[in-house]
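Record type: monomer structure entry
Structure origin: computed from sequence
Chain ID: A
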Amino acid sequence: MRGFRAEIPAEVQQPMTAPQPSGVPEAPLPLSIFVITRNEATRLPRTLAAVRGLADEIVVVDSGSTDGTPAIARDFGAKVVETHWRGYGPQKRFAEDQCRNVWVLNLDGDEECTPELVAEIRALFEGDGPKLDGYGFPIVEILPGETAPTFLGHSLAPVRLYRLDKGRYVEAMVHDRVAMLPGTRTGTLKNIVLHRSIDSLSQSVEKLNRYSDQQIADMRARGRRIGGLRIWIEFPVAFFRAYILRRHILRGRFGLIASINYAFFRFMRIAKALEAELKDRG
């Protein structure tokens, strides 16, 4: 985890739309973009519009959406595969298998590439193509009511653009990440992705509740136990991490709401683990 500090271009200050072509459209790259979805009808259009024309293939793997997400993806020209939910890592590995290109770009259905990042990715493929085997880029959270990244806002920069013959998503059910082969070289791009993680408070609470259930199932499958002392300290520690260390204190009322939601999610994860252990004892 790290803070992100950068000068935000003026065009990023407004809600993002797909870059408008001028003159002859640029040819799509030999790149597959893949997205896993479930009920992302309100956010997926931003995700796909921002990368329109960037890649010669977009793959959307949907797991039981009831809000028309697959139809929206098809309207954008995406190849849609509807399947059951496997867990985060396995689902992304399944999506990788649907891609025809060696180079892939993974986005979530609530993420949006800025025009500057799209241009930076295009530049990588000029001439002899990318010099490295994988690239990360800063993923910056945007809370409701915000139109631009907050100064010193929290961000992560995982590998999301990579060669499938050099890296794959791990099988982890909840902590999905790309594992690169030994000896591969990776770097970090300078431009950003906007992450709109909260569509509504109801959606956020439902998602966090579902995610904590999956974390508990994963922990139990690995035989991991949580000490009982954490039930007393998890909420205040998690709130401090979000509100102070991740600087949500600078983000007004929704910064406070997001911090409480995060702390409650962390607390419920511990509570559910202890509940499961009590049931095991009979």
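Annotation 1: The two ends are 40 Å apart (CA to CA).
Annotation 2: The chain has two domains: 2-195, 201-280.
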